Amino acid sequence: MQGQGAPCRRSRSRSRSRGAFNRRSNYGEAHPIQPAVLASIVEEPSSSIMPVVNPLMVAAKELKFPCQLAHGSPVAIIDKWNDMEELYQSIADFFAISKDDIIFLTVNDFKPDMKNMFSGTLNFKDMLFAHVRGQATELRMVKDANVFGVTVTDNGLGNAFIKVISPGSVFDRMRPATQVGQLIEAINGESVLGKRHYQVARMLKSIRRGEECIIRLIAPKSADPGTMKMTRKTGGDLAKGTIRFKSEGGFAVEDIQDQMIQAEMCGKLNELFDQYLGVQDDQLAMRIWETASNCETLWQLSEAIKQSELSMFEFPDGLVFDMWGIIGDLKREQREKKPMPVMKNAISRPSAMKLFD
Fold it and tell me: In Å, what is the CA distance from 323 to each residue of 122, 164, 330?
């Protein structure tokens, strides 16, 4: 029990959506109650100006988005999350499934289309679809080429899956047993669950040409024909912005120009990741961009990568050099304040020596 002179305290709600509207308590030390005269109620003039509310900012504060299982389910409203792990856990809790059963998420598309895969960016009118474990397939294949011809990505939580299958490759010739969106569960009897995509890609690369291997894949559940319908996004100024969740936590609200710049940048960096590592990862591309934001030379970027968690990827020097070429072009165009709907290829890159100046 508090003493008579103790300050009065009021409990505060933890809800984001209500927290913005809680009034601050001005209570100080306790004082005797003084008689007061209530003022008469005066109506506000009808001409009073209502504050302008941006629905995008409201969505960012509330973090509420509709979600449905990709093979069919009721629609859930997912909230109370700040990062990818909390998002997956919230979806799993609502549908009473394990978080590990969710292979990946797509945006506004119940089909396992990698072009619409959720990678941390949402419009406030977007709808999420969760793709969960389905039929398992165990394949015995011979690596009759230098590579399997498969590009791997992951959901950031330990599920690595197939994002791209190259035409004419080993994996392509195994269709329809192989398909985009399949979870890679085990390689030669060793479970790869919990490993990052670059670790899985290294295991596939380590298999020598001519060797036989056994790969266990799990396809996402698919909807029965006619049971699912595509969602439609409405246009207008309210849709010209996104909420992007940062790798270190939290989120940022970005406009349409930021989206276009980042989409082009992610596409180019993913091409490099695929070439050097056999993976594609929009979140990794954004993490590289965030790391390079305070770098002015290739050497600074190389050192920043070595001193961050990005060092685990063990990027080859050639990859860092090519990444800085893409990022350096973008940084120069931003400094010159040129319109940037698309990154231009006409700007030549500096020589290798100047990159270290």
Answer: 25, 21, 11
Please state the φ and ψ torsions of residue 163, each to the nearest 5 degrees: -105, -40
| Beta pairing class for 160-165 and 150-154 | antiparallel
Q: Which residues on adjacent β-strands are paired with residue 254?
A: 242
Contact 344, 336 (CB under 8 A): no
- 163 sits in which H/E element: strand 160-165
SS3 243: strand
Contact 120, 283 (CB under 8 A): yes
Over residues 235-292, the pLDDT tens digits come to 444 444 566 665 555 555 555 566 666 777 888 888 888 888 888 888 788 888 888 8
pTM: 0.65
Give the residue from 329, 344, 341, 347 showing the smallest Cα distance to 258.
341
Could you tell me which residues are beta bridge partners of residue 65? 78
Question: 188: which 2 tokens?
Answer: 């030669």
Domain ranges of the chain: 58-220, 255-356
Residue 54 pLDDT greater than 80, yes or no: no
How far is Cα 329 from Cα 344, in angstroms, rounded to an integer?
A: 8
Highest mean pLDDT among 195-204, 272-281, 325-334: 195-204
**Superfamily, domain 58-220:** PDZ domain (2.30.42.10)
Residue 76, both tokens: 């859930």
Please, which pLDDT band fits residue 173 given cuts at 50, 70 and 90?
Answer: very high
When pLDDT is averaged across residues 44-63 and rounded to a whole number, the result is: 51
Distance CA 197, CA 192 (A): 9
Taking the C-alpha atoms of residue 339 and residue 352, their distance in angstroms, rounded to an integer, is 27
- What integer pLDDT is reported at residue 38 of this predicted model? 43
Structure tokens belonging to residue 142: 């011979």
CA 208 to chain centroid, in Å, comes to 33
